[in-house]
Amino acid sequence: MVSKELIDIFYVLEDTFIGEYVRSSIWLFPVIESFHLIGLGILGGSVVIMDFKLMKLIFRGTNKIYILDQTRKFFIVGLSLLILTGVPLFLSEAVKCYYSRAFWIKMISLVIGVLFVYFVRNPLIVKKEGTILILIGFVSFSIWTVVAASGRWIGFS
Amino acid sequence: MLDFVVWLSETKWSIALHESLYLYPWIESTHVLSICLFFGTLLFVDLRLTDKVFNKLSVSEMNTKVLPLTIFGFLVMSITGLLLFYAIPVRNYQNIFFRIKMLLIAVAGINAFFFHRRMSKEAKIWDKDSSIPRSMKNSAITSLVLWSSVIISGRMIAYNWFDCDRQPQPRWINELTSCEVDYSLFEGIDGF
Q: What is the ipTM of this complex?
């Protein structure tokens, strides 16, 4: 469903200086996209190590708070790189993104993923013990898998 | 080699894969997910050797616990990568970024071979006195730089600035990519 007000905003975003600058260069979009993928890898590594620990697949004898402490900064670095590179990529083809179902799935799952990590997963790692953490790890890993996969599907739209 | 990839492109499964509406995107998505798993976990394995992360855990412990995930990611990445190549063999074979990527993988593979051979011999010693040699730290950073470059060149394969059917291209590009070009068509154009 097309919302007149929303699509107008997307047209304005696409016409911004950054959007036009990225579009006007044949190299810039692929180069930014490559660093976007590296950002996804960094974030992915921190998510996999923390969530697999919660699912008791790795680091069984290691303190979970220590793992959180070690992976947290990589989550922030990965997420920052994703946002820094994702914004110009989006601005260069905002209207295409508006009509892409994969884009909306990625954005919604990204917001859910970040909120889940900061307001559910991380606080519960500190407070809770037991099987609930297995579920938390599984949910977090699933959300971030959807973020990564739907991101790739934007290109196929 | 060109004859072989042309033959490969004419096989039934290659055409089916290339023309499939959903299978190709699914394989590519799995390739991207496996890159995240491989690179993301490798980051921690390599940075452990620089003492930047997980330095309360021994090198051996880190390898035992995280390296299997890295290897699994590498296997899935390789299988899906082969399938992606098989879907469009001629274009990939003649793609300059594909060639750069293969070269970088070979160099990264050699680095990984010597890196892990030494690590398997000496990790127990480093666990005890916690002094990892500088050469190993350099090798870990080299590994991350090489694999980042593999990701960048891999992403560039999708862009066709230097494809054989986009002529005229500089001769050195055509030679590097094994493009068979009839230059008589471009007589009078600067550089040909």
A: 0.89
Cα separation, B19 vs B22, whole angstroms: 9
- Its sign, for the CA torsion A98, A104, A110, A116, is positive
From chain B, pick out residues whose CB is under 8 angstroms from the CB of A28.
Answer: none
pLDDT on residue B21: 83
Q: Which residues of A touch B37 (CB under 8 A)?
A: 44, 48
The beta-carbon neighbor of A152 closest among B29, B152, B159 is: B29
Residue A109: alpha-carbon gap to chain centroid: 8
Q: Which residues in chain B touch residue A113, judged by CB atoms under 8 angstroms apart?
A: none
Q: What is the pTM of this model?
A: 0.90
Chosen for mutation from A29, A48, A144 (greatest number of chain B CBs closer than 10 Å) is: A48
Interatomic CA distance for residues B84 and A25, integer angstroms: 27
Token couple for A154: 């934007």
Q: Of A38, A70, A74, which is closest to B151 when you measure between CB atoms? A: A38
Whole-number mean pLDDT of chain B? 89
What integer is the mean pLDDT of A92-101?
93
Provide the residue ranges of all domains of chain B, joining segments of one domain with +: 2-179
**Contact between chains at A49 and B66 (C-beta distance less than 8 A):** yes
Nearest to B44 by CA among A117, A42, A37: A42
Q: What's the rounded Cα separation, in Å, for the pair A51 and A116? A: 12
Q: Are B90 and B9 in contact (CB under 8 A)?
A: yes
Asked if omega into B168 is within 30° of 0 (cis), the reply is: yes
pLDDT one-digit tens code per residue, B78-137: 999 999 999 999 999 999 999 999 999 999 999 999 988 888 888 778 777 667 888 888
* Shortest distance, CA A67 to any CA of chain B (angstroms): 8
CA torsion angle for B78, B82, B87, B88 (degrees, to 10)? 100
pLDDT number for residue A1? 60
Question: Which of B65, B148, B157, B160 best probes binding to A when mutated, by most A CB atoms within 10 angstroms?
Answer: B65
